[in-house]
Amino acid sequence: MPKPMIKSRRRKPKVALRIITTSADLENVRKKGYAVDREESVTGGICFGAPIFDERRQAVAAMSVSRPVIRMSKEREQETIRAVLEQPGKLREAIQADLLFHAGEVKGRTV
């Protein structure tokens, strides 16, 4: 049986550096409302993610957008960040509307 290949030696220093700065990163993510993974998980990839909160402001899900770094300009990065920040709110509203609709059906009335 062949031995598993190491995916990338290049990514290891980035990962180690990120482990050291995890507390500062988490605080920064909380302030900004989104997280960024710049080639830490996948060499050549960039990912932006944001939580989806319920009505009590508890994170119940998350969404993310991943792209190849080579296609990411500063303008495209800002567009992607805006989309990642806007969409969770829209998803939350749709989920809440669906829950209200079904709650009305269960009680024998329409909302």
- Beta content comes to 15-25%
Find the structural class using helix and strand composition: alpha+beta
- Ends: how far apart? 61 Å
Largest sheet: 3 strands, antiparallel
Give an overview of the whole structure.
The protein has 111 residues and is of the alpha+beta class. It has a single domain, classed as GAF domain (Beta-Lactamase, 2-Layer Sandwich), CATH 3.30.450. It is built from 3 helices and 3 strands, in the order H-H-E-E-E-H. The protein has a 3-stranded antiparallel beta sheet with strand order 1-2-3. Strand 2 and strand 3 form a beta hairpin. The protein starts with 10 loop residues before the first helix and ends in a 5-residue tail after the last helix. The N terminus is likely disordered.
Could you outline the blueprint of secondary structure elements for this entry?
Blueprint: H1 11-20, H2 22-32, E1 35-38, E2 45-53, E3 59-68, H3 74-106
Antiparallel strand pairs: 1-2, 2-3
Primary descriptors:
3-stranded antiparallel beta sheet; alpha+beta; Beta-Lactamase; elongated; 111 residues; disordered N terminus
Outline of the structure:
With 111 residues, the protein is an alpha+beta fold. It contains three helices and three strands, in the order ααβββα.
